[in-house]
Design goal:
The chain has about 280 residues and is of the alpha/beta class. It folds into three domains: about 55 residues, no CATH class; about 45 residues; about 160 residues, Rossmann fold (3-Layer(aba) Sandwich). The strands form two sheets. The protein has a four-stranded parallel β-sheet. A two-stranded parallel ribbon has the order 1-2. Helix 5 links the parallel strand 3 and strand 4. Helix 5 crosses helix 10 and helix 6 packs across helix 7. The chain starts with a helix and ends in a 7-residue tail after the last helix.
Amino acid sequence: MEEILREYRAQLPLTARQIFYRMVGAHNYPKDERAYERLTNILVRARRARLIPFEYIRDDGASVMRSDHYEDKEQFYGHIRSMGENYTRDKLARQGLDVRIYCEAAGMMPQIRLVSDDYSIPVYSCSGFDSLTAKYDLFTDVSRAHSWHGRRTVVLHLGDYDPSGESIFDVIAEDVHTFLADAIPHKDPQDVALFKRVALTPAMVEAYSLPTAPPKSSDSRTRGWEGTQTCQLEALLPDTLADIIRENIEAFLSEEILDQDREFELEERRIIAKALPAPGQD
């Protein structure tokens, strides 16, 4: 396990299932749910014993809602100075479109954000999209981006290759497009919001020789599904997934504008840092 964590230190944190698939592929670890359960128990014990840092492994944690509060004005000024020193430009502002990434596995969001943050692209979990409210909220954002700013929205999806993974994304796209057709009848919904499935695809499963399993007979969506074998997103090597995400993002962006914004960002960061008061000054 330590070898795998060292190998993919640039993509940390990893999920337990990503580690599992790497152990199956590279170290002949048994590929069954009992073996996976053993591994997760080992990872829990290793983290509790401080053999593996807690932050190296990602699992679903508690949700929180809170506001920023400060013990005094000096702490607030320190926070502002830190923001100035880490100032980043919105890389989508001059691209003429909005881009979002939706991921089926919430535990993979920090790892995906390591790639997407460089392009100012937010990452969302698909786990709440059985909710009509969540889909309507997405429609509202997409509609406003088009009506108020003339911007198209691109939604990139990362999920398992199985009946449920594909169905979740298809339903999101269909519902949002239905809302758009009613709200903006003169416009093709595809021109307002483009939904693209980035991974997993059947071609990727074959190209990367990913482990597969038959679809679950208990899943009601299996009957109408075209595939014969399923595969989990976490079976992709973390660095391979990062390359796939980066390639798909850059396919929609102007490289020239992106390079310019990165240059402007460095200069603007220096200007902001000079304008902020030094520590201890009011």
